[in-house]
Amino acid sequence: MLSQFSVDGSSAIVTGASSGIGEAIAANFADDGVDVVINSRAQERVDAAAERIRENDPDGEVLPIECDVRDREAVFDLVDTTVSEFGGLDVMVNNAAGLFSAPFEELSANAWKTIVDIDLHGVFHGTQAAGEVMREGDGGYVLNLSSVASLPGGSPGSAHYGAAKAGVNNLTESLAREWAEYGIRVNNIAPGLVGTEFQLELNDMDEEELGPREDTTRRMGRVEEVADVAQFLCSPAASFISGETIVVALAPGRWGE
After folding, report:
1. 8-248 sits in which CATH class?
2. Which residue among the candidates 29, 86, 161, 179 is catalytic per the annotation?
3. Does the pTM of the predicted model rise above 0.85?
4. In the chain, where the domains are located
5. Is 141 annotated as catalytic?
6. Could you read off the pLDDT of 119-157 as tens digits, one per residue?
7. Which of 173, 211, 250, 255 could make a disulfide contact with 215, Cβ separation 3.0–4.6 Å?
């Protein structure tokens, strides 16, 4: 009865999946029987994530591959390997991202470029590589991960990050229209403050301190709360949704005040 909420496809790539939201999305997909390629810039980190996912005995395979999304050739190789190992590519999740805070006047050109290269150019590389496969086949699903920092109101202290993620929002809308004729849906998730490894360390918190999912007050979210939305958007249940940025955060506390 609820089969429409299963991921529509047999193979997927989730970038930046060595921890946090990316790992949670990959775990959901694998549990759903999807064969998933996960990547990180460090092989040992993505190997560890793959082992954690396999501990739950998922129905789908998990293949960890080292890849820096800033490296266009490496990203295309990642897609080629996925097709070779799993026979195709149905879902591309562009999750890899970089973030640090700094006043705009103190940003160096290199610091700006680093974040834009990961957060925007990485999505460009991944989506172009996946699109080549999907357009020649039966279509597919592209899911991008943005941030509430990209929304109206800006991202004080992280202008470089907010600007790059705003580019992802617009790219999502543009490609949803351009690639509709190929049977490709493109959507975007903009999470609020979520208890990733980075955020927990930054806020000196343990995962046990995160509020329960039933708590509707201002709180830090759980990675599973984003992963469940990702699963929905890549399922037939979301077949009438494309070109959207879905905010996954509790209003009015999107910023975690």
Report:
1. alpha beta
2. 161
3. yes
4. 8-248
5. no
6. 999 999 999 999 999 999 999 999 999 999 899 888 888
7. 211
